[in-house]
Specification:
Layout: H1 3-23, E1 39-40, E2 47-49, E3 56-70, E4 78-81, E5 88-91, E6 93-108, E7 111-124, E8 131-132, E9 139-140, E10 145-146, E11 150-158, E12 161-167, H2 169-172, E13 192-201, E14 206-213, H3 217-220, E15 228-237, E16 240-249, E17 254-264, E18 269-278, E19 305-314, E20 319-328, E21 333-344, E22 347-357, H4 361-366, E23 381-392
Antiparallel strand pairs: 1-2, 2-3, 3-6, 3-23, 4-5, 6-7, 7-10, 7-11, 8-9, 11-12, 12-13, 13-14, 14-15, 15-16, 16-17, 17-18, 18-19, 19-20, 20-21, 21-22, 22-23
Length: 393
């Protein structure tokens, strides 16, 4: 047998085998059906059903970067110690934050079951002063670094009943203050607290809230089984809203209240005014074991009364101007103004200027224990500016 015959015979055998296999039926396995995420539009955009459940979930948050300059008392500035000669310099106040938010919703026979969580991660230096003692060589510097991780919200709500970590209804129900970054140059109430709260909405513009609160901090956390109590009523219509809240501080047995008027002047212009008043005899009692120094969890401003006013003007869909002025009985005053611009949907740049007047600066400068320096100011009048970049998702 020569080589040519061998090759021809091999080829014929391969063809025969191939033909035999081709005669067999070819079976292709059907792909398993894929279970894609199902969109849930009951509670707004961004929700989806958790697979295998009737619970809708939304995940969101923001990434933020602040650059501040100016005086510490404006909440925008910072100071640091010179690494070589110990001089104290003004420097940038820089702050980066990542905030993670989750929302869930599910319909039940007892109403809508909802949850909300918000956790914040922070990096940067601090809005504070610095110092150097040439005699001892000791110093207080202001280095950048990872700062606190905070649980700002973690509540469960069924129908109108809410329990968990929230911010005080003394602030949330009335709508905080203005649309500026530094809205607490004159503070309008403390924030963090656990709550047992009931919210009622009549559906005709009238709503109300009652909130039992734990408070937070040395002065604010309740000292017995008696909670702080906050109550509020609101009437909302197309023209705006009128809201009132009142709070009982169970630690110092004092009462504070605020009333607020919101007016939609035009589609572009909205204005607000808010007035607060609180009793403070026990807050100023020098015999207290824990000295509140005139400021409790709710009446946190100086003196008995305080005010906040301002507004927003929308130039167009992307650009708005915001202003807030504030003051209290101790002659502390604050002014904040900004322009917010949406570069693209979800990415906003805000430029703000801030002014703070410390009414009792001379008294504090002579004796720092004599009065509260709420903004940490080192001068009577403080000015600063802040540039904020925020990507929300």
């Amino acid at each position: 047998m020569n080589i040519k015959s061998l090759l021809l015979g091999s080829a014929a055998a391969l063809i025969a085998v191939s033909g035999a296999r081709a005669a067999d039926a070819v079976t292709v396995a059907e792909p398993e059906p894929a279970e894609y995420v199902k969109i849930c539009d009951v509670y707004g955009s961004g929700y989806f059903y958790i697979p295998g459940t009737e619970t809708c979930l939304r995940i969101g948050g923001y990434v933020r970067y602040d650059i501040g300059i100016g005086d510490v008392g404006s909440f925008d500035g910072a100071k640091s110690v010179d690494h070589q000669d110990g001089d104290v310099h003004s420097t940038f106040f820089k702050h980066a934050r990542f905030t993670l938010k989750t929302w869930t919703g599910q319909e039940t026979e007892l109403g809508t079951l909802k949850t909300y969580t918000e956790t914040r991660f922070n990096f940067g230096n601090n809005n504070r002063g610095a110092s150097f003692n040439p005699v001892t060589g000791g110093y207080v510097d202001n280095p950048a670094g990872n700062k606190n991780v905070s649980l700002n919200f973690a509540w469960i709500q069924l129908g109108g009943l809410r329990v968990g970590k929230d911010e005080s209804a003394f602030d949330t129900f009335i709508g905080y203050a203005g649309n500026v970054i530094q809205d607490t140059l004159v503070p309008y109430g403390d924030f963090d607290t656990n709550v047992v709260q009931y919210y009622f909405d009549a559906g005709n513009g009238f709503s109300a809230v009652i909130s039992l609160e734990e408070g937070a901090g040395t002065v604010g956390t309740i000292d017995s089984y008696v909670p702080h109590i906050v109550g509020g009523v609101k009437y909302t219509q197309g023209w705006g809203a009128i809201t009132g809240v009142v709070a009982y501080d169970s630690n110092y047995e004092e009462v504070a209240g605020k009333v607020r008027l919101d007016v939609n002047v035009t589609n572009e212009l909205s204005l607000f005014g808010m007035f607060g008043y609180g009793s403070d005899d026990n807050l100023n009692d020098p015999t207290n074991v824990i000295d509140a120094r005139g400021r409790g969890f709710y009446k946190i401003w100086g003196g008995n009364w305080a005010f906040w006013a301002g507004g927003t003007y929308k130039f167009n869909e992307k650009t708005s101007f915001n202003l807030q002025v504030s003051g209290d009985q101790d002659k502390n005053y604050g002014v904040a103004a900004n322009v917010a611009y949406d570069i693209v949907p979800g990415f906003t740049v805000t430029a703000e200027v801030d002014y703070d007047h410390f009414g009792k600066f001379d008294q504090w400068n002579a004796d720092p224990t004599s009065t509260v320096n709420f903004t940490g100011a080192d001068k009577k009048n403080s000015v600063g500016g802040l540039l904020r970049f925020q990507r929300s998702f």
